[in-house]
Amino acid sequence: MSQYALPEPLGFPNCRRCAYLINGTPRICGACAGKTLQPIPDDHCLICSQALAPGRACVNTLCGWPEGRERRARSITRIDAVAQYSGTFAAYLRIFKETPGYEFLAAIFGRLLIGWMETHPHLVHDIDLVVGNPTHADRKPLQHIEAIMGAAYAEDTAERWPLTTPNDPLLVKAGTTEASKDRGFVGKEEAAWNHRLAIRGTPALSSAIQDRRVLLIDDVCTTGIQLNYIAGGLLNSGAREVRGLVLARVPWKF
Question: 137 in helix, strand or coil?
Answer without folding.
Answer: coil
